[in-house]
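Limitations
The structure tokens in this dataset are predictions for the assembled complex, not deposited experimental models. Users should treat interface geometry with appropriate caution, especially where small molecules or nucleic acid strands are included. An illustrative entry is reproduced here so readers can see what is and is not provided.
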Amino acid sequence: MPPTPLRDLFQNNLQDDQELPAKQKQVLQAALDLFAVQGFDNTTTKQIATLANVSEGTVYKRFKTKEQLLTAVLKPIITDVTPQMASEFKRVITNHPFESISDLIITIGKDRLQFVWDNQKELRILLGEILKQTQPVKEFTQLITTTIVPAVYHQFDQLKERNKLINWDNERIFQYIISVLLGYGARIVIFSSPIELEQTLTETAEFFERGLAPNK
Amino acid sequence: MPPTPLRDLFQNNLQDDQELPAKQKQVLQAALDLFAVQGFDNTTTKQIATLANVSEGTVYKRFKTKEQLLTAVLKPIITDVTPQMASEFKRVITNHPFESISDLIITIGKDRLQFVWDNQKELRILLGEILKQTQPVKEFTQLITTTIVPAVYHQFDQLKERNKLINWDNERIFQYIISVLLGYGARIVIFSSPIELEQTLTETAEFFERGLAPNK
Amino acid sequence: MPPTPLRDLFQNNLQDDQELPAKQKQVLQAALDLFAVQGFDNTTTKQIATLANVSEGTVYKRFKTKEQLLTAVLKPIITDVTPQMASEFKRVITNHPFESISDLIITIGKDRLQFVWDNQKELRILLGEILKQTQPVKEFTQLITTTIVPAVYHQFDQLKERNKLINWDNERIFQYIISVLLGYGARIVIFSSPIELEQTLTETAEFFERGLAPNK
Amino acid sequence: MPPTPLRDLFQNNLQDDQELPAKQKQVLQAALDLFAVQGFDNTTTKQIATLANVSEGTVYKRFKTKEQLLTAVLKPIITDVTPQMASEFKRVITNHPFESISDLIITIGKDRLQFVWDNQKELRILLGEILKQTQPVKEFTQLITTTIVPAVYHQFDQLKERNKLINWDNERIFQYIISVLLGYGARIVIFSSPIELEQTLTETAEFFERGLAPNK
DNA sequence: AATGAATGAGGGTTCATTCAT
DNA sequence: TATGAATGAACCCTCATTCAT
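Predicted assembly:
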């Protein structure tokens, strides 16, 4: 079961929000779509209003600032991406611990790269803002390091115990894996180049299996 | 001998240009510095003029558009980064072919990561513009693939011949290596986090030595 | 017994009005308070609604325009200030005619300057709007001249008859007195500077007693 | 020789300013005229631009804010009104000391009331802003009290020495005189009601001559 | 060639006013 | 009747770009 696309998550979130009037939801949706395609700076509040079928005044009714609009758009993305990733790990941990580093890479990679592919546009906003070091994004990175990273390290430790993983620093191992996976992700987001997901991951797993095999 | 910082390369290039009037050179230099710190969108032509000690009109004497100014700033970066990287490989190739994948990673990594560290700001512009898919940047990526990639592949082939590298597709091998190295680069550019260059690379090399060792 | 503060007069008037719904009364009260502090231009209909514990729509239920709101606020002030001032004179006239110009100045001055002190804020609106030559304010000045002025002139005449006042034009005498008294008033309204009421008036009376003594 | 109208003083000042481009002068002149007629809040930068035959951008070229424009307009008024008034006193002091309180009132009154009459509009801006307690106006009042007031007090002292003025506190005497004179001024500014200057002042002087005569 | 004043379209934002519920 | 979401004109201000000097 592939992860839900961000845009859908976003929309669901909006619909669940009882307080937010319909038009305000349209505003957020329009802002998301426009920011994703044109970037924050190159998007006009007028454009947002038009795409949302709403007057410009309505855009400012709830969100007092264009900046606040960005935050409102970014926040659900951030708060959804992170917990989902975290839960992904936790779920697998409790249900059936990873048999091998291969297992871990393929399971996570499949899920997350699919997610990236499904959400190219949305993630491009994130990337753009990361480069600007916007405040909400700083929180994001911190969130990642406090939730996901420990979960992964825990997995590493378990694999090490069962002698399925080389006895290097968790940080070091994480670095390599995350770099390669993010490398794929970056190519998707930046160049929209498709990936032969299944095979690519199998090969990648094979590589890490070699590189991270414990010394016998 | 560490690679020359982009800013110096840029300046040298400017001074060599006989056609460009002095004031125009100041303009380009100012534009580079400001774009790097504030980004393209958040930089004013007035700011450029002021920093360049030049009138606003002068900024537009040669470069008819702010966009053209960006191009003019980006182009030397692109055309300098690429050949240098290419020549880096070629030089090492001709002088003394890499003894091992370790050798390659450490040599190249040392050089390029140092380069990244020295040019964080400038590279951040590049990254920002890459996300916007600006025209000059598309050329950049193409340039890379036509000059650097073949050079590296050639190295891979040689290592394979001498049975020092596993017989996988060059592209696949390249993917892994470039991902890990760019991973370090990204961390530098985005978070300005320093790196224990020497040791990091030695460890990284060790990892790849394992992962990419030929089947015996 | 000091004169009732305008704000209270205003409130009483509102409560007496049977036709006006409770919420509308709250609106007027809020408008008065806000206009007094921030001025008409710098007060938002939203602010009025909020302070009145009422929706923005309700503000416009009866008063079709922000301008009408100002009128509605100004009118009771005007129609209350003036009659009260007029009756003040008349009352004193009928009860016990002034013994001297001193008597008149001290009696009136005490009452009116106290009034000014108690209603600085409200009067500041009036002054501000006077400068803009708003319609309701024109009525105000007219009202003053038709009610108060004759009452005072009548007093002057009586004093003259008893040889207690110089035989100058009433208008001229009025000018001097009103100027000095308004001078005190202005200082209060503009600079909020307190006044030693009792002594100041005694001294002022002494001055006028000299300046306006009849030729013997 | 009547005092130069503010608008002319203003214009002269502008023309003397070598640095200020012609269009900027038009901007200030237009701002002055519009503020005087409509008040600050009700004047649009677009209106200013139109009246000045200038683009809206030009309005903001030198004056970064509408508020700064007000300051720029107010400053010359303030800095011209005050010194002129001060010098008026000083000039008369040195040349020929006032013979009597009559002399003082007529001399000063003539000059200043003429000035008020000639500059109704401009002074109305001042008054409007005084009520708002804007910063530049606070300086104004302070300037008055530190320059003019002492000069007048000095005159009072001299008259007292020569037994031509009652021995009251200078402040008290000043109060009465200024109130009556400002009373005339206010009527001019607010109601544009003309004054029979010469006669009015003669009468006023007579009144003060009585009220402020020394005890024999 | 260089200046910097001038332009004017357009951006973000506010707010009096309207109207569906 | 009361609500408050919605409107849209207009405001202040910015800035890439032009042009007279």
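Some entries come with short summary sentences. For this one: Chain A touches chain B at residues 39, 41-42, 124, 127-128, 130-132, 172, 175-176, 178-180, 182-184, 186, 190-191, 203-204, 207-208, 210-213 (CB under 8 Å).
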